[in-house]
């Protein structure tokens, strides 16, 4: 059985201290991939323009990544406003395209590989909290030759999640996977992370054990584990109240030899794309 893992840091471009750590991790840890936020995540209102309020931190993050890991192609960590009272956005393709084009400009300027995949900040593409934009995202990925963070199986990510267990959600997911396959869009076998807050993570050892168990459960094929590593700063504590400890623990995890040895012991291949 061959098991491969894309180990991703999400939310690059939102904090300069985290960006420096992520760039260093890509050069000297098991981390293999990164998702960059190219639209201002604080401008998440339904009235924002389709071309976004561009996140100035994205270019900074790309420059740092290009300097430390020049072969890494970043992913577009798509930010969309929460669904409005009308049930959704009719110009979502324009919004996603604007973010993709912004990151492409940043990678070109930094001499880095062009973006190679889309994923979704807070799941807004998937429609778990409102209208689904899966069809639009898959169509754009097919047109631009991008992969898409849509897991073939909801195992691991869907552990104990009553929403992901609903029959209509499962049916929509299966239809989207079939559509992506028909369009030739690459997807991971499963995706996984720790979805809870600091209180649910409890402490570093408990969080590490969670990720070690995820490694044991990875299926055959190429899967993804994504984290949000960040150093302990006053800014992080202010902006991520209730979540900041877990982010510092995930940073620690990526430098923990116990975690690295377990990847090696299980014969998991670390790769940069699915």
UniProtKB/TrEMBL annotation:
Gene3D superfamilies recorded: Glycoside hydrolase/deacetylase (3.20.20.370)
One example of a Gene Ontology biological process annotation: carbohydrate metabolic process
UniProt key word Plastid: no
Organism, scientific name: Promicromonospora soli
Keywords associated with the record: Carbohydrate metabolism, Hydrolase, Magnesium, Metal-binding
Record-level Gene Ontology MF annotations: hydrolase activity; metal ion binding
Superkingdom classification of source: Bacteria
Upper lineage: Bacteria, Bacillati, Actinomycetota, Actinomycetes, Micrococcales
Protein name, per record: YdjC-like protein
The keyword Cell inner membrane belongs to this UniProt entry's keyword annotation: no
Cofactor(s) named in the record: Mg(2+)
